[in-house]
Predict the 3D structure of the following.
Amino acid sequence: MTNNQFSFEFFPPRTAVGERRFWRSLGQLETFNPAFLSITFGALGSGQQQSLTTVAQVSAETATPIAAHLTFEGSTRDEVRAIARNFLDSGVTRLVALRGDAREDAELAAKRGYCYQSVAEMIDDLRSVHDFDFSVACYPEVHPHARSAQHDLQVLKDKAEAGATRAISQFFFDADDFARFRDSAAAAAIDLPLVAGLLPIRDFERACDFAGKCGARIPQRLHSRFAGLDASDTERVARDEIERQTDRLIEHGCHDFHVYTLNKTLNFRQLKSSVPASGSACTVVAA
Ligand SMILES: Cc1cc2nc3c(=O)[nH]c(=O)nc-3n(C[C@H](O)[C@H](O)[C@H](O)COP(=O)(O)OP(=O)(O)OC[C@H]3O[C@@H](n4cnc5c(N)ncnc54)[C@H](O)[C@@H]3O)c2cc1C
């Protein structure tokens, strides 16, 4: 039997209540032996200092490996390198290397000449700071701004060739979409472990909003199941759905999962089989 491996993503809390929820959730989820905890990075100047502070605090408090997200859009190369050094000073040697979302304005246009052109270039350059373990992002349903699905895969391949260790997927709700994406990646000779991104649904409207922004399809079945539910029924159905999705992914041979926790506690059946390891079981295998 293959063991499942989980990582958990958090965002830096911004209020005293949020901070209490963050630490409670982190403490609970650590009991499932995650492969790592990741902390998001506010793009384009918003919340970057909070990310640095949160990463330093979590790194000081826990023995679980931390992966710090780092985006380059809107920052110069020197700024990105300085942030990477700052993470390193906090003892963090894993990065989730990202472009981040672009915003068109004069200040950003002026900086663009000093930005990286791609995540692959960023990875290559940050090796001058440290030999970090780099995770990158991938998109089972294609990034909403992608020129084409083929180009999306080419960008992923470039990141793999730059030495990324794993690609964490955007969340999706149909396990078969992820399996098809994995097969396309294999057909494109992308040699990179793919980690399935899971978004437990706590608030269906909010999940629809997130999904709309990042191009994730919500199957009609979920609309029918969540329609008109109160909070406790939503929780019950959400748990059932995440277990169903995870079971289906396991049937497809995936054992490596990244959970977008939204800083909330979680408990579903497959978490109990989680093992603390750094490898990935969801290797790319041709269909
Ligand atoms: C696991 C994960 C973690 C994330 N964490 C954060 C975070 O902490 N902070 C944050 O701000 N955002 C985060 N994001 C969102 C991410 O920044 C956006 O999806 C962003 O639009 C693309 O970043 P990327 O690193 O995937 O970029 P890329 O890999 O460069 O782009 C992804 C795809 O988008 C297309 N594309 C988009 N923009 C361009 C462009 N300018 N030129 C060419 N092609 C382009 C390409 O098809 C490409 O394959 C995360 C996403 C994921 C999946």
